[in-house]
Amino acid sequence: MPIRVMIAENNKDTRDKLRNILALYPNCELMSSARDGQEAIQLAAQFHPDIALISLNLPGISGSKTCEILNAIYPDIMSVLLCDQQNTAIAETALYSGARAVISPNVDKKTLLDLIDNLTDLKVRRTSPEYMEWKDVTKHPRVISITGAKGGVGKTTLSVNLAVTLAKRVPGRVALIDLHSQFGDVPTMMNINPEYTMMDIQPIHSELDMDTIQAHITKHPSGVHILTTSNKPAALDALSNDCLDSILYVLKSSYRYIIMDVPAILQDITLHAMAHSNSVLLIANLFDVTTAADTMKLAEALENESIPQENIGVVLNRVSKSNQLQSKDMLKVFNGKITAYVPNDNQLVSAVNKGLPLAMSGGSSEWMQSLEQLANIAAGLPDTASPTTEKRTTSLKWWRANGTA
Length: 405
Known about the structure:
This protein is 43% helix and 16% strand. It is α/β, with parallel strands linked by helices.
């Protein structure tokens, strides 16, 4: 691909000099030149150059303003400000306008060609696999908090099985944090007995690194790496916010997904955890009307704590025909904003008693399909992030067919 260059300069002799130098650059496509700022913006809209050499002293719209406008509407265009003066004020003007460099309009051949070479290299790097991976937000580490307005709604069961489902996609890159300082159930459900916990990390969290984290992690056969708060009852605020921040910071360097099973209580550490999550899933069931009311209150409380509304989702768990409430009732309560539906499965209780997450059994049951969809939502995948997608519509059809929607 040729590098496309536009010149915006009112002085004809300077334009001609720049064009003659650029003609020496291999694979350079010279575009029509502009004589003022308005013409430069119009030509940029028409031809979309890679590089724009723009004189500071353009008539009409100034060169710095032209750079600023191009940077705002066409950020891929790399502007270079042409100015005889080289001082701090000019440099600040260039930075503010989004220019990549400041050079003299009487620039020598080597300096200009070296600059074009550097900017061409930057253009190539922008489309490199490394840059494109950083641009794809679905590949960034994601922190997902799972909680509920009360106990018994199945949030730990979903936390464990969601972690297992995600670990099937990226084994060894899913961390599961049991944030309960008192009576956390993740170890029981996964049949583990952690020797070390996050309470052991607390005294050394300011010097935390991945080697230390790994020494406190329990690796599960499913590919999930587990961190628990404490192996014996501790105060609700036993783990500090600073310690949790350090743990999350280190985990993000190696783990794709970090699932946090958050206690059903609003306190400093739980609010801090949810505020630093990409997604907060509130688990509710259809057993009684108090769950619906309390979940709504919880959602409102989290929004009042400056947790973005778009980060909060409601998941209806253990949905079945025998529920006292119907999912259409919950849709009314939450104004149609239900993120996902998870059906009841009679094997869940047996799986919990065995300490073997049901998601490890595989299969294609409706429950397993709903976990796969929930995993997509938690992962922030664009094809499932919107409630109006075809996959979400298909799931709603299933619930209607089974008399629950």
